[in-house]
Amino acid sequence: MRNLCMKVNYDGTEYDGFQTQPNGNTIQDYLESAICSLTGERLKITGSGRTDAGVHAYGQVFNFHTESPIPIERWCLALNAWLPRDIIVTDAREVPLTFHARRMAKRKTYRYSINANRFPDIFHRRTQAHHPTKLDVQAMEQGLAHLIGTFDYTSFASRRSQKTNHVRTIYEAYMTVDHSFSRPGSDDQGIIHTYITGSGFLQHMVRIIMGTLLEVGEGKKSADDIPFILEAKNRSKAGPTAVGHALTLWSVEYEENIKKH
């Protein structure tokens, strides 16, 4: 028996998330079907975590146990031949039988992309939220800084969250602004990328954080409201849930004995 760990990138636009759903239109379903077509094995893979419908991944990690003797260097190309064009396996390695993609993940990073230019980018509209009106990016950065640390993030969790413990740690969070697609002499604000790295995330947590920061950028909330929102532990105190298609699971990190994906 072998335990294989793989990295998969996907455009989640047409899918109902990563984890298996009753209608069968998920990334996990397509990966398991591709493995079955390749090896004849009907098995279940273990992902590093869920992503919602419409959310993308540039660094989703999964593992599974197999009896297939296929050499590790052939797995990526072989699986990709059975997968849709918007799901690509980019890395495969053999790991100890005890490795578990979800339980052993130590840090995850998500990226949320906002197009703050006057017009949407037709080539990136599936991965960006368009916000054509003025945003106070500095205030958004100040609000984001208040979220770094270990807190009870109940205010930033979906009301449907089934977790009994909402305490998580955000290790790092920052914004970058790409002006390369802005029109010279215009009031375009560029593409605002927000990176958030944490120990783990609650359902809709990053999207609710971004919905709240957008309200800060619009002047509807103050950056200094964030600590009070955290303290309230009340979903109604935070902003709306931002659209899912602008969110990407950027990377997943493990202990040093498992090479970083």
TrEMBL record:
Domain Pseudouridine synthase I TruA alpha/beta residue range list: 8-102, 145-255
Catalytic activity annotation: uridine(38/39/40) in tRNA = pseudouridine(38/39/40) in tRNA
Subunit architecture: Homodimer.
Name of this protein: tRNA pseudouridine synthase A
HAMAP family with a match to the protein in the record: TruA
Residues annotated as transmembrane: none
PANTHER family: PSEUDOURIDYLATE SYNTHASE (PTHR11142), TRNA PSEUDOURIDINE SYNTHASE-LIKE 1 (PTHR11142:SF0)
Active-site residue numbers: 52
Xref: Pfam families: PseudoU_synth_1
Annotated substrate binding sites: 110
UniProt source species: Paenibacillus kribbensis
Physiological role: Formation of pseudouridine at positions 38, 39 and 40 in the anticodon stem and loop of transfer RNAs.
Gene from which the chain derives: truA
Family the entry assigns: Belongs to the tRNA pseudouridine synthase TruA family.
EC identifiers of the protein: 5.4.99.12
Alphabetical UniProt keywords: Isomerase, tRNA processing
Key word Methyltransferase present: no
Database matches in InterPro entries: PsdUridine_synth_cat_dom_sf, PsdUridine_synth_TruA, PsdUridine_synth_TruA_a/b_dom, PsdUridine_synth_TruA_C, TruA/RsuA/RluB/E/F_N
Highest taxon of source: Bacteria
GO molecular function: RNA binding; tRNA pseudouridine(38-40) synthase activity
GO BP terms: tRNA pseudouridine synthesis
